[in-house]
Design brief:
The chain has one domain (about 10-450): Amino acid/polyamine transporter I (Up-down Bundle). Strand 1 and strand 2 form a beta hairpin. By secondary structure, the chain is an all-alpha fold. The chain starts with 9 loop residues before the first helix and ends in a 9-residue tail after the last helix. It is built from 18 helices and 2 strands.
């Protein structure tokens, strides 16, 4: 039976959408990118770009999603019939699928680490031994595949239950728990001897560290941290009632995303400075450096378990949204087929994700353009497909959808004025596409900043 579900409550939607945005990008990627990109200078640029560029694009996805009340591909068919714009939706859905093939691998690593922590496998090791443990876990094909399966099983079980009974119910528990655990960790972190050094590194901009590379990193992170350009926000907003205040919802999600990014930095950097570890450790910061930090604290293993749980919650809430985007396009509102298609989608994601899962073990010697399979898919999705998707959405909203329809949709549930609309429209039509093109050209090796 074709029934387009809706969120049970306004808060449920905000928590689910925030959960989609607050994923591995905010907790795993942002701290190590900040650590390698000058700390406070990077974080300041990230905040500015998120507000000035990420917010307009997020609101644009909300508008077209609720306007069409359909899945990501059908949205473009409804709003621009007999055109090729539906390929924007197809690109977004396919990008979500590819993200899940390696995202589920990292989710599996978190589960494996949580198991190690709960069974005492992380107690009393040195930083070097934590690094070796991480290498052993990701290179063991059986363990890595089991972790990936476990992560996908949880995701599929939740999404198969639908919007209200599955995603909304799960995120309504996970997101408040995530915030509570984060606040607990930050409170503990701020009591460490080197806390002020960590705070200064994160919050006091050193503009001597500001260069074109830092600006580009911050620009890219601002787009990717909000799950933009992959159709998930179009899908989630399609379940909204007309009385939802879209600008307020988008602003709430941006605010929560920035707050979590701040908490992640405050939870991590004080400990890194206190124990004399490298802030520029890179992607292994969470898995190899943080355990060493917590190991130096009284009851540190309990705090690290709390961190892993919130890390898992953040990863799962993002995975829910991406799987939902896929299932919505396949099931077409036929709730009798949702469960079957969710399980089929999960199985296909797992199969296609096997090469990424084995990239640090059995397939470590297999490379594409000098990268492991995992890194190649990650690079292709993050640096090419997501920017293209975000660019297409910004152009579609501002050039294909009429101003009258945009204003009409915005004014359902909110009282936006002419000034707000004009500023938002200008940013989305001109500034956001330009910023995306700059990032994209940099990825292709064309250094735009080198022209000046």
């Amino acid at each position: 039976m074709s029934v387009h579900e809706q969120w049970k409550s306004k808060l449920g939607f905000i928590l689910a959408a925030a959960g989609s945005a607050i994923g591995l990008g905010a907790i795993w990627k942002l701290p190590y990118v900040a650590g390698t990109s000058g700390g406070g200078a990077f974080f300041l640029m990230f905040i500015l770009f998120t507000i000035l560029l990420g917010f307009p694009l997020l609101l644009g996805e909300f508008i077209i999603g609720r306007r069409a009340q359909s899945d990501a591909i059908s949205t473009y068919k409804k709003l621009a019939p007999k055109t090729k714009w539906h390929w924007t939706g197809r690109l977004g859905v396919f990008t979500s699928f590819l993200v899940l093939t390696f995202y589920s691998v990292v989710g599996g690593w978190i589960i494996l680490y949580l198991f190690q922590a709960l069974t005492g496998g992380l107690n009393g090791l040195s930083q070097e031994e934590y690094g070796q443990l991480f290498g052993n876990i990701i290179s063991n094909p059986i363990e890595a595949l089991i972790g990936q399966i476990a992560f996908l099983l949880i995701t599929v079980l939740v999404v198969s239950k639908g919007i209200q009974q599955g995603i909304e119910k799960a995120t309504s528990f996970m997101m408040p728990a995530l915030f509570v655990l984060f606040l607990l960790l930050v409170a503990r972190s701020l009591t460490l001897e080197g806390a002020m050094d960590g705070i200064r590194f994160l919050l006091v901009p050193d503009f001597s560290q500001l260069n074109s590379e830092v600006v580009l990193f911050a620009l890219g992170q601002a787009f990717f941290a909000l799950s933009l350009g992959v159709s998930v926000m179009v899908t989630y907003s399609s379940y909204l009632p007309k009385d939802q205040n879209l600008p307020k919802s988008a602003l709430s999600i941006v605010g929560m995303n920035l707050f979590i990014a701040l908490l992640a930095g405050l939870a991590i950097f004080p400990g890194v400075f206190t124990f004399g570890l490298e802030v520029s450790e890179g992607p292994t910061l969470v898995f190899a450096v943080l355990p060493a930090v917590f190991n130096e604290m009284p009851f540190g293993i309990l705090f690290f378990i709390a961190f892993l749980i919130l890390f898992l919650f953040a990863a799962l809430t993002s995975a829910f949204s991406m799987v939902e985007s896929l299932v919505a396009c396949i099931a077409k509102d036929d709730q009798t087929k949702r469960k079957k298609y969710t399980w089929i989608s999960g199985a296909i994601i797992f199969i296609v994700g096997i090469p990424s899962c084995l990239s640090y073990g059995l397939m470590a010697d297999f490379e594409l353009f000098g990268r492991t399979f995992f890194d190649f898919v990650d690079m292709t999705v993050s640096n090419i497909m997501m920017p293209l998707g975000a660019l297409a959405v910004s152009l579609f909203v501002t050039f294909k959808v009429s101003r009258a329809d945009l204003i009409d949709e915005l004014q359902h549930g909110s009282k936006v004025g002419k000034i707000f609309f004009n500023v938002w429209f200008y940013l989305l039509r001109y500034v956001t596409p330009l910023a995306i093109i700059i990032v994209f050209l940099d990825v292709l090796g064309v250094g735009v900043f080198d022209w000046f």
